Amino acid sequence: MAVVAQTAEARERKDIANRWLLSAPALFIVFIAAIGPLFIVLAYSFLAPGPYGDVKWEFSLGGWTSVLFQRDIFDETLSLADAHLSIFWRSVKLSLMTTVVTLIVGFPTAYFIATRRERDRDIWLFLITIPFWTNLLIRTFAVLEIIRNEGIVNNILIGVGLVERPVQMLFTDFAIMLGMVYVYLPLMVLPLYASMEKLDFRLVEAGYDLYATRINVLRRIIFPLVKPGVVAGSILVFIPSLGAYVTPSILGGGKNLMIGNLIELQFGQGRNWPLGAALSITLMLIVMITLLVYVRNASGGAERHHG
Amino acid sequence: MAVPADKAAIEARGVSKLFGSGEHQVAALDDVFVSVRENEFFTLLGPSGCGKTTLLRLIAGFDFPDSGEILLHGNDIAPLPPYKRPVNTVFQSYALFPHMTVAQNIAFGLEMLGQPKGEVRARVAAMLKLVRMEKLAERRTSQISGGQQQRVALARALAPQPKVLLLDEPLSALDYKLRKEMQIELKRLQGETGITFIFVTHDQEEALAMSDRIAVMSGGRILQIGSPWEIYDRPAERFVADFIGETNFLTGEVKSVEGESATVVLASGAGIDATYPVGTQPSGRVTVVIRPEHAQAVQPGAGLLSGTVSNVVYLGTDTHIHVALDDGAHFVVRQQNARSGPCGHETGDKIGIAVSPGVAQILKD
């Protein structure tokens, strides 16, 4: 008996070893593409900046200090880096607003698609994904074309007589948010649709039958049931918004920076790679903390419902 | 609320509902008139696609009729959305809210009506007691059995004390024994709550066992409305006779009509007195129906009909004796197995068939 068990165990162990070997290519790619570079970024953040970019191989906390503080050129005293803080704040604020607006716009869109006939749904989903085919840069310039001072919107507003002079929309936070909403909307609609498609619409009828008005059916039945889609969509929109680079640099006009632009600045004109690396890690930390808080709240709410 | 006895709980007047468009348009309901009395256990019975569920959905407000009126205690409710109708539904799939507990499900309707928290809690407790689910109040709906889900669905629909409770084939998902239990349970609940029940089913046995009155539906029309025994013993149309229970169809010629019964000469030459549907005047060639249990196997030569036994089917409680009549027609006699052992007739035997008085019914066609 013991011998049989032993050989069986040995075989199993060999099986597992074989499986490790089989997944080796995937593990290799994960390491090369994700974990390895991350360590390089982490290492660079603790080095000193080289005079022409790059890094000097000596330990320094300068990069990390510069994330939050700035050193006075004359007396070398540290003070809070207001510019950085305001950029962090703008990034978080605009990303949250983008997430909320895409949710408000995407929810009815996904509901609309999910309630179409089965063969029509594919057409609508196809239409939703069409913008993905176009280059991000071109889509962003399209938004610029629409909202600039001589653009369509302002021409219409002046033509109708609502305003006398063009409304300054371009190069504002609003422009950045609008651009991000436009670009990331499909990332909200698709996961929302995926969970709405699974929604049993007989539950909606049951809600109406039990005296729930439309708003109560939405609040008490549909929303709790599609919450996984809301969570997934919000994460998918929030993360790239926070690190957005193209949209704020074009629609923000270079003066309304977000974290992505700040990082680019350090690796480019700023020639401060350690600060850039530290900022990158900071961005990741902000994302992780936000996600932890968000997911805990979202699932906590669900748990309370589930009793 | 005092309601005059003659005022129907629910009344449909010339209700029609069309589905599809153009050439593919079909009438799910075709000019339906029906009146359901207060405190009645009323059943809509018919095969799938007969329009019974459509009628229920119109009463609930999930669909709107293309023409006609639906009255609740005399008031037209056709234009009202479902959440403004004092009518609740027990769905075929139960449609319990999966993100709520049993108690939260039952409380939902009361909360939506804006009842105070204390009252909601008391009412939920009372409903849990009514359906004997007190111990499972805090369970998720996915953690209870099908029969228990059924009870929760009932409690949830009864909690807001609707004027009318609609039940859409609520027992079809349950196994045989549980179904029998729930039939009795439903009858008890209807008696205890005094609420008008409109019950939809395709199961004739269920309909006969539970209903005060039954409406038999086919092809979007109501063919006959009556008490279970009227529907069973006095079917007006071939479809009703055929759909409910088993029956024998015999053809004959009407000889004379006296009061509520007519004398019909059957193909074999034998004469039989038969009742006929109210409002018709039988004449000429007619179809007469006789239920298998209303006939008895007797000695050859005796009785009304004669033939040869073609098959004997033993069913435990009864035996079905299939007989090829001398005129070529087919007839089934159901004989109760009052004692053990074979029934005493064998394939190929000559046999006579006696028919109890007053059981033959003439059909409309």
Describe this structure in words.
The complex is a heterodimer of chains A (307) and B (365). Chain A is mainly alpha-helical. Chain A is 74% helix and 5% strand. Chain A has 14 helices and 4 strands. Chain A has helices at 2-22, 24-44, 62-68, 82-114, 118-129, 136-147, 152-160, 173-197, 201-209, 214-225, 227-242, 246-251, 259-267, 273-306; strands at 47-49, 55-59, 69-71, 78-80. A two-stranded antiparallel sheet of chain A has the order 1-2. A two-stranded antiparallel ribbon of chain A has the order 3-4. In chain A, helix 2 packs across helix 14 (273-306), helix 4 packs parallel to helix 8 (173-197) and helix 8 packs antiparallel against helix 11. The longest helix of chain A is centred in the last third of the chain and has 34 residues, at 273-306. Chain B is of the alpha+beta class. Chain B is 23% helix and 35% strand. Chain B contains 8 helices and 20 strands. Chain B has helices at residues 52-60, 102-112, 117-130, 146-158, 176-193, 204-210, 228-233, 238-243, and strands spanning 10-19, 26-36, 41-45, 67-72, 75-76, 87-90, 164-168, 196-201, 213-218, 221-226, 248-258, 261-266, 271-275, 285-290, 295-298, 305-314, 318-325, 330-336, 350-355, 360-362. Chain B has a 6-stranded mixed sheet with strand order 6-7-8-3-9-10, with helices on both faces. Chain B has a 5-stranded mixed beta barrel with strand order 11-12-13-20-14. In chain B, strand 17 (318-325) and strand 18 form a beta hairpin. In chain B, helix 2 crosses helix 3 (117-130), helix 2 (102-112) runs parallel beside helix 4 (146-158) and helix 3 (117-130) crosses helix 4 (146-158). The two termini of chain B are 44 Å apart. Residues 1-5 of chain B have low confidence and may be disordered.
